[in-house]
Structure formats: structure tokens, C-alpha cells
Amino acid sequence: MKQDELHGSCLCGGVRYRAALPVFHASHCYCTMCQKQHGAAAGSYANVAGAGFVVEQGAELITEYASSAEGRRGFCRVCGSTLFWRSTQSPDRIAITLGTLEPEYDGIVQRELFVDQKPAWLPHA
């Protein structure tokens, strides 16, 4: 495994990918669409260059859903793992899900998006 790449996979292991560094920023997105897709308080992503994103295995298992005019969400159609989010307005970037990375992401999360939609049930620091 190269040190200048991130690697990840879905829950069933059918999809494997790599993404070239650097990570432009990592974020937690609290929009209701991310909450519904992830089944969690937020979607957590590493924003990288789209040109450096390569599906090494299982491309035929990836389904993309146009959740809005601004974005498409990619997931494994076998196990349902959310893999990425693509902006239609910034097609040169892709936001890969932090929870699918192997080994786990060791960078910091620099941004929180849509904090006005952050669930009240989250613990407060």
C-alpha cells in the first residue's frame, strides 16, 4: 500500500478503491440527506481530487443516486455501504466516506457543514 494514497472498501468487501492524497479537507455534514443516507448524525468525508479516485474492484456494484441537483451519492448495491458523494458543481473533486477507509483516517476534521441541522440528541461538548 502506497503512503500517498487512501484505501477503502465497502462492508461486504465487493468494492475496493484508492484515492490519491492530499485530502483537501475532511468534514462532518449534518444535512438531513447525509443523516438519512448514513443512518447517523452526519456523513463524514475526505474531500480529494476526483482524478485520483480509482475503483480497483467492484465498479459494477456501485450505484449512484442523484439526491439533488447538486450531488450524487455512490453506494454498494450489495451491502448498502455509502462510498462517496460527488458535487455536480465541482466535478474535479470527490468526497469519500471516512468510515470506509482502511486503515482508519488519521487526519483531523476541519469542517462541520449544516450545523443548524445537527441533531439535538448528540452529546454536547
UniProtKB/TrEMBL annotation:
Family matches, as Gene3D superfamilies: glutathione-dependent formaldehyde- activating enzyme (gfa) (3.90.1590.10)
Keywords: Lyase, Metal-binding, Zinc
GO MF terms held by the record: carbon-sulfur lyase activity; metal ion binding
Domain CENP-V/GFA intervals: 6-106
InterPro entries linked: CENP-V/GFA, Mss4-like_sf
Any Pfam family matching the protein: GFA
UniProt family annotation: Belongs to the Gfa family.
Protein name: GFA family protein
Source organism (scientific name): Duganella guangzhouensis
